[in-house]
């Protein structure tokens, strides 16, 4: 940001009028023809120059003025009235000029400081830094531009203050600070003060050393005197200072630029350049006089005209005069203060009349004049400083109702970028290299609704007022009262007024992007679109290569706004170009051609491919590339690079720069998002430890790149791009690469959102989730307001004190709701409008078409980058979760067809062998699991072709071993939910009174079973016996593991609770315990679905594994029942602890799942199947009739329950022991102890009338009666069995099988289960070749 225009290394052009003898050596850009014209007009020079250069000095008798002495005359005019040199030390201030941050000794902690020494970013717990100048007398002010709204303390300190990582400005006696994050002031102690600040605000810090006071202002509004009677006197001087936490950033203005909010009587710490300021204003006045004057050649007189109509190709006399003026004006325009205060305000004044930018050609003519009359380095520096000033003004301007400030600055930016030469220079050198240019496309959300004028635009507010038992709005618009309807409509009209004003800003932002995407300015070099694309790709690559460090990513709120404007601009340019060519197609049919994935025309840098590493794919699929794509890969050009080496190369070499500094003050180039509000780089990394913060994994050398035969995008020229013949599949004019960039934005910044949630959980969630956050707040306050109003209605008249408090609460809730409803309107208009929804929907359709075309290439589909699938899933999730209820997906064009296409992609590719990445496989599986949770998307799955549906179900029914099976199981459960026994609930009965974390979670959606997919599952399991056996065996194995893990964990929890000392359980362990329980329940539901749809798998013993599967099922069901239903057992006691993290652990979900299986095999089956099931169940040694009786609350004495032996013991002392809580807290012991257990309610299905139908209860009663009778008959008919006749493996069944050839014996259940995984004999380890039935000889 420092001025570079005053250097002496470059010489200026000499615009002195050449004499006749000097003509051959004349310098400048004037031709001989223009000089001849000029000589002919010398007779009128005196009157001409006197008129528009020195009109006030024109009087009779003055010496005639000619071109030869014009330069001296200008020098004399500029020195008249020049103020005295202001560089001398002003009284009351000590320190150098200019004032900057003290990066040599005045800091503590780790800091990034911009190269102008005015912007700073904290990079440690609590870093502090002060300025180089102090004050001891008088009134002084400086401004701080807030770039992030986190924890910072801004103010003043003395040289004696010593800060550390815990104490900063305001924490020591002689330091004073304001903290807008916590809305407090600090001077050792702290009290409430001021208002909350937000990113984009400006804090003014004022100190009056004559009165001993310190005051702070926010956006020009005084927050009141913060401190009085501060320490003053000899030896006491105050430095501007700041302390800020990790990743917080600000920029200081000590006076190097005009103060945005100057305060009368207070001086900036840095003296303004008064002499240069006066000269600049004088020279600009001369320029305006010249531009508003023309020469009438016929009448030989001067004519006044509107300067807006001036054109560069005018009279040479005027141009020569302007050249002399610019000889003095140009060096001044390299100084940031003068550019912002003089030039920018002059250009803004040109546009004040309104109208379109095209109606003000004067700015274009002035820019032509700049490039003609100024040296290149001068106009470059001037344009850079002008754009920096515009960007700073746009970002830190307050939000007013008509958004006038933002519109004003965007109009001037548009006017400047309309100038071709200026646009190309800015694209090449400024917009991406120096500035945070995407800030131009961001519309900040006002934190203070009243100051933003939203009360004027939206005078009437509205919010939902009727909620169901789950907290959702239950009233339809047709059920509203007349008053509610009027309020809602008035609120919607206000929202529309706000939206129209925001659309004006958005349209200007789109115009800027369309200028940057101009492809018709190739005559003067590379087209703007080509420059923009190359710069933008490097910007994306920088963010992609640093995605592991959240501080290096562009903030999501910027990129979301930029993405929407870029989509609008690209689509407009695309459609405009397609209308001009017969072979073109509209943006509605856009996709990325699959050839780009492997022909090298687009550089995807380090983005992962579906098939793995690109070098690996080129080796393994080189034949396919040669045969299908006619691409020959030379093996010698492919380096065999390991994953680790490739990652290191990508991280270290993307931008060919170091990521950490070796010592304090070392150069460190960083992504632009770690900088001050406008600068894009920082070159100082300050550390009190004098070491680098981040060290690469290995020494940074020239990055090793995989050799590719095609040119990288940065190496290609326009000729390279136009040589290849483009077909209809190739998108013209580089729109293909722009489209790729848009999709990369979505992928990278969806990751940034997750990182931001991790590192800034206390702040507002990422921009895409802001509506959800505000909507939840509106819902909470609306429920609270409704509850308060009901309490007021019930409050007795005699309790006036209670009524008064309730009315205060009612007022607070109503005010908060008014604020939030207006803020929600802003978010809806800027982020979640219908147009934004259509943008995201377009991206979704582009990704779907791209994936479909890539899939058609067969094996070459492996070259497709993973992020196309990720973007499709993210876009669908955004449409489904973030835009409702303001906008509905059903209103989108072709909505159902798009859902079906996406369903086909998920169904086909979640088990696609061409996809090898575990992360993308998991993402596809999770997306499909979420897809089947919602009725509309589930119906889309049912609409895909039957062949694809059957293939999807076959993949879902693959054995669970050696693959992620939890999501697969969840998908099957969702297909069954709503059909199972007591399985029609949305939330568990005991959780209804608690608020869900997110009502939009897939697990909280209403049941929507798919009978069609259930039928496919039944057909597959029925026809493919081997697949059915392996699938069910894996389900039973996982159930055994999950439930065993769950029991083991609750044993540890209970043991911790029984210890007399205070104990804590890690929260993570509690979550794992709850997860194991949920997995057990879901596996039981899959078994219930299988038993219901294909009962013959278990009951038709002609199938090879039916009897074994039935016995295993019975064994597991008995174990679950015994563990859960025994009185005063382990499960019961842990449930009663009600620990945070174990909310889902309860009797109901697991017992109804077991009951559903038992009812199906014991009540709903045929006679033979029921008989077999009862026989197997009763023959299991773990069977306890008491467990079945427990389901209906008919449990008797449980002392004989063998199933509860593991949990029996000193349960009577539970009430005397402290209970165990989650990490960091303990929980009170359960109320129910052994002494009053009779008063506690027993579990009974009869208590869940809203969840279990009468028919289901009757089936349970019939099952209980049947088992009671069968158990009596079995007990009476069972003959004593000799121990020698029992199976030596399980000791539960009689010997019924003999092994061949070793002749060892066991029961059939044991040997069948063993042979599923092993062919060796239990006893002798011989290979078993066969199993025969065994019957005890009659003689014995």
Keywords:
elongated, 1340 residues, alpha+beta, seven-stranded antiparallel sheet, metal-binding, single chain, nine-stranded mixed sheet, RNF123/RKP/RSPRY1
Description:
It comes from Stegastes partitus (bicolor damselfish). It is found in: Cytoplasm. Its EC number is 2.3.2.27. The structure is a single chain. This protein has about 1350 residues and is of the alpha+beta class. Helix content is about 45%, strand content about 10%. Strands 3, 4, 7, 12, 13, 14, 16, 17 and 20 form a nine-stranded mixed beta sheet that branches. Helix 27 (about 945-955) packs across helix 29 (about 1010-1025). The chain is elongated and about 140 Å long. Mean pLDDT is about 75; it is low at about 1-50, about 55-65, about 465-475, about 635-685, about 685-730, about 750-770 and about 1195-1240.
Structural topology:
Blueprint: H1 32-40, H2 45-52, H3 70-79, E1 93-94, E2 107-108, E3 110-114, E4 119-122, E5 126-130, E6 134-135, E7 139-146, E8 152-157, E9 175-179, E10 184-187, E11 189-192, E12 202-208, E13 213-218, E14 221-227, E15 239-245, E16 249-253, E17 267-268, H4 274-291, E18 293-296, E19 301-304, H5 316-332, H6 336-350, H7 362-373, H8 376-395, H9 404-417, H10 420-429, H11 454-457, H12 482-516, H13 528-545, H14 556-578, H15 614-620, H16 622-628, H17 643-653, E20 682-687, H18 718-723, H19 735-759, H20 770-794, H21 800-830, H22 834-855, H23 867-881, H24 895-909, H25 918-931, H26 935-943, H27 946-956, H28 966-976, H29 1011-1023, H30 1025-1058, E21 1064-1065, H31 1067-1093, H32 1096-1099, H33 1106-1125, H34 1130-1137, H35 1147-1162, H36 1167-1179, H37 1185-1191, E22 1221-1222, H38 1254-1277, E23 1297-1300, E24 1305-1306, H39 1308-1315, E25 1330-1333
Parallel strand pairs: 7-17, 21-22
Antiparallel strand pairs: 1-6, 2-5, 3-4, 3-20, 4-16, 5-15, 7-12, 7-16, 8-9, 8-15, 9-10, 10-11, 12-13, 13-14, 18-19, 23-24, 23-25
Helix pairs in contact: 3-5, 4-5, 4-6, 6-8, 8-9, 9-12, 10-13, 12-14, 12-21, 13-19, 14-19, 19-23, 20-21, 22-23, 22-24, 24-25, 24-26, 25-28, 27-29, 28-31, 30-31, 30-33, 30-34, 31-35, 33-35, 33-37, 33-39, 35-38, 37-38
């Amino acid at each position: 940001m420092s001025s570079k225009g005053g250097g002496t290394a470059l010489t200026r052009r000499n615009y002195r009028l050449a004499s006749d003898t000097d003509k051959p050596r004349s310098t400048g850009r004037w031709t001989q023809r223009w000089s001849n014209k000029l000589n002919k007009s010398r007779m009128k020079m005196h009157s001409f120059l006197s008129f528009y250069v020195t009109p006030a000095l024109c009087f009779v008798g003055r010496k005639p003025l000619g071109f030869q002495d014009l330069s001296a005359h200008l020098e004399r005019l500029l020195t008249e009235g020049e103020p005295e040199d202001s560089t001398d030390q002003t009284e009351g201030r000590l320190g150098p000029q200019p004032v900057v941050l003290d990066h040599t000794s005045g800091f503590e902690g780790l800091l990034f400081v911009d190269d102008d020494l005015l912007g700073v970013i904290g990079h440690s717990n609590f870093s502090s830094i002060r300025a180089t100048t102090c004050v001891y007398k008088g009134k002084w002010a400086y401004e701080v531009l807030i770039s992030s709204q986190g924890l910072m303390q801004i103010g003043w300190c003395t040289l004696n203050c010593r800060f550390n990582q815990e104490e900063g400005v305001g924490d020591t006696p002689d330091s004073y600070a304001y903290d807008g994050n916590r809305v407090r002031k600090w001077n050792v102690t702290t009290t409430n003060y001021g208002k909350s600040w937000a990113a984009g605000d400006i804090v003014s810090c004022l100190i009056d050393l004559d009165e001993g006071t310190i005051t702070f202002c926010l956006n020009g509004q005084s927050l009141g005197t913060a401190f009085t009677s501060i320490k003053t006197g000899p030896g006491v001087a105050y430095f501007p200072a700041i302390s800020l936490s990790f990743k917080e950033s600000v920029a200081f203005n000590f006076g190097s630029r005009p103060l945005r909010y100057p305060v009368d009587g207070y001086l900036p710490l840095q003296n303004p350049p008064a002499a240069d300021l006066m000269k600049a204003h004088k020279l600009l006045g001369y320029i305006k006089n010249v531009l508003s004057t023309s020469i009438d050649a016929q009448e030989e007189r001067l004519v006044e005209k509107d300067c807006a109509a001036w054109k560069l190709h005018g009279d040479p006399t005027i141009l020569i005069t302007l050249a002399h003026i610019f000889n003095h004006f140009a060096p001044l325009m390299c100084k940031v203060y003068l550019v912002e205060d003089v030039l920018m305000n002059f250009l803004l004044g040109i546009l004040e009349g309104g109208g379109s930018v095209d109606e003000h050609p004067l700015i274009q003519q002035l820019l032509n004049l700049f490039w003609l009359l100024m040296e290149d380095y001068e106009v470059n520096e001037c344009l850079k400083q002008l754009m920096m000033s515009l960007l700073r003004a746009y970002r830190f301007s307050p939000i007013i109702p008509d958004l006038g400030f933002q519109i004003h600055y965007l109009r001037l930016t548009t006017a400047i970028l309309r100038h071709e030469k200026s646009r190309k220079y800015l694209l090449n050198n400024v917009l991406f290299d120096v500035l945070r240019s995407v800030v131009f496309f961001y519309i900040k959300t006002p934190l203070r609704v009243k100051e933003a004028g939203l009360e004027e635009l939206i005078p009437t507010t509205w919010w939902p007022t009727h909620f169901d038992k789950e907290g959702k709005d239950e009233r339809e618009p047709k059920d509203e009262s007349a008053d509610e309807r009027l309020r809602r409509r008035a609120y919607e009209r206000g929202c529309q007024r706000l939206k129209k004003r925001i659309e004006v800003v958005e349209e200007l932002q789109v115009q800027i992007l369309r200028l940057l995407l101009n492809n018709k300015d190739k005559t003067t070099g590379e087209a703007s679109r080509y420059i923009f694309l190359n710069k933008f790709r490097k910007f994306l690559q920088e963010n992609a290569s640093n995605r592991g460090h959240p501080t290096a990513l562009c903030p999501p709120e910027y990129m979301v706004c930029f993405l929407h404007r870029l989509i609008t601009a690209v689509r407009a340019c695309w459609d405009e170009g397609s209308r001009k060519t017969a072979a073109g197609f509209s943006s509605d049919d856009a996709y990325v051609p699959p050839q780009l994935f492997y022909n090298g025309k687009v550089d995807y840098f380090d983005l992962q491919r579906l098939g793995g590493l690109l070098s690996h794919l080129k080796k393994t699929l080189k034949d396919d590339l040669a045969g299908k794509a006619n691409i020959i890969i030379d093996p010698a050009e492919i380096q065999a690079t390991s994953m680790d080496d490739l990652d290191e190369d990508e991280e270290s070499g993307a931008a060919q720069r170091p990521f950490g500094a070796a010592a304090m003050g070392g150069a460190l180039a960083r992504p632009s998002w770690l900088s001050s509000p406008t600068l894009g780089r920082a070159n100082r990394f300050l550390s009190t430890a004098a070491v680098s913060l981040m060290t690469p994994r290995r020494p940074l050398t020239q990055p090793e790149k995989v050799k590719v035969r095609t040119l990288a995008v940065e190496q290609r020229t326009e000729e390279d791009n136009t040589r290849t013949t483009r077909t209809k599949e190739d998108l013209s004019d580089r729109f293909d690469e722009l489209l790729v960039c848009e999709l990369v934005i979505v992928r990278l910044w969806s990751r940034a959102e997750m990182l931001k949630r991790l590192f800034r959980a206390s702040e507002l969630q990422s921009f895409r989730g802001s509506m959800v956050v505000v909507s939840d707040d509106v819902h909470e306050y609306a429920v609270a307001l409704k509850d308060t109003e009901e309490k007021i209605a019930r409050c007795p008249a005699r309790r006036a004190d209670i009524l008064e408090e309730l009315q205060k609460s009612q007022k607070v809730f109503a005010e908060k709701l008014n604020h939030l409803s207006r803020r929600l309107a802003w978010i809806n208009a800027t982020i979640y409008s219908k147009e934004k929804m259509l943008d995201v929907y377009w991206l979704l359709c582009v990704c779907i078409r791209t994936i479909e075309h890539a899939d058609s290439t067969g094996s070459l589909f492996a070259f497709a980058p993973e992020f196309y699938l990720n973007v499709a899933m993210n876009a669908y999730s955004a449409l489904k979760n973030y835009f409702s209820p303001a906008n509905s997906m059903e209103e989108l064009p072709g909505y159902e067809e798009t859902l079906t296409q996406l369903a086909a992609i998920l169904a086909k590719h979640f088990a696609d062998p061409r996809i090898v990445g575990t992360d993308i496989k998991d993402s596809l599986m999770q997306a499909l699991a979420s897809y089947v949770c919602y009725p509309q998307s589930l119906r889309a799955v049912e609409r895909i072709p039957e062949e694809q549906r059957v293939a999807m179900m076959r993949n879902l029914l693959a054995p669970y071993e050696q693959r992620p099976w939890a999501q697969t199981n969840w998908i099957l459960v969702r297909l069954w939910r709503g059909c199972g026994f007591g399985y029609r609930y949305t939330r568990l009965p005991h959780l209804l009174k608690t608020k869900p974390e997110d009502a939009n979670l897939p697990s909280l959606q209403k049941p929507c079973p798919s009978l069609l997919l259930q039928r496919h599952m039944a057909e597959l399991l029925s026809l493919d016996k081997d697949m059915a056996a392996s699938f069910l065996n894996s389900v039973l194995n996982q159930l055994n593991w999950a439930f065993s893990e769950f029991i083991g964990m609750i044993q540890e929890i209970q043991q911790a609770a029984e210890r007399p000392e205070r104990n804590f359980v890690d929260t993570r362990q509690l979550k794992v315990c709850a997860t194991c329980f949920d997995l057990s329940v879901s596996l039981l539901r899959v078994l219930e679905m299988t038993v219901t749809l294909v009962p013959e798998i278990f009951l038709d013993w002609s199938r090879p594994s039916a009897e074994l599967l039935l016995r295993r099922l019975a064994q597991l069901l008995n174990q679950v029942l015994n563990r859960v239903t025994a009185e005063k057992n382990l499960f019961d006691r842990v449930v009663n602890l009600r620990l945070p993290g174990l909310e889902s652990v309860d009797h109901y979900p697991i017992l109804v799942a077991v009951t559903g299986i038992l009812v199906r095999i014991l009540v709903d089956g045929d006679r033979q199947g029921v008989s077999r099931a009862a026989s197997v169940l009763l023959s299991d040694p773990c069977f306890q009739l008491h467990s079945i009786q427990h389901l209906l609350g008919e449990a008797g004495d449980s002392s004989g329950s063998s199933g509860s032996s593991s949990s029996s013991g000193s349960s009577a002392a539970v009430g005397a022991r402290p209970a165990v809580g989650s990490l960091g807290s303990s929980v009170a012991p359960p109320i129910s102890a052994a002494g009053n257990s009779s008063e506690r309610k027993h579990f009974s299905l009869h208590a869940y009338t809203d969840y279990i139908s009468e028919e289901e209860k009757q089936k349970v009663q019939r099952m209980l009666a049947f088992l009671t009778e069968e158990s009596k008959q079995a007990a009476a008919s069972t003959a004593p069995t000799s121990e020698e006749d029992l199976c030596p493996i399980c000791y539960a069944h009689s010997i019924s099988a003999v092994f061949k050839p070793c002749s060892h014996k066991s029961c059939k259940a044991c040997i069948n289960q063993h042979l599923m995984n092993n062919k060796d004999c239990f006893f002798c380890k011989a290979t078993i070749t066969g199993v025969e039935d065994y019957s005890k000889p009659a003689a014995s």
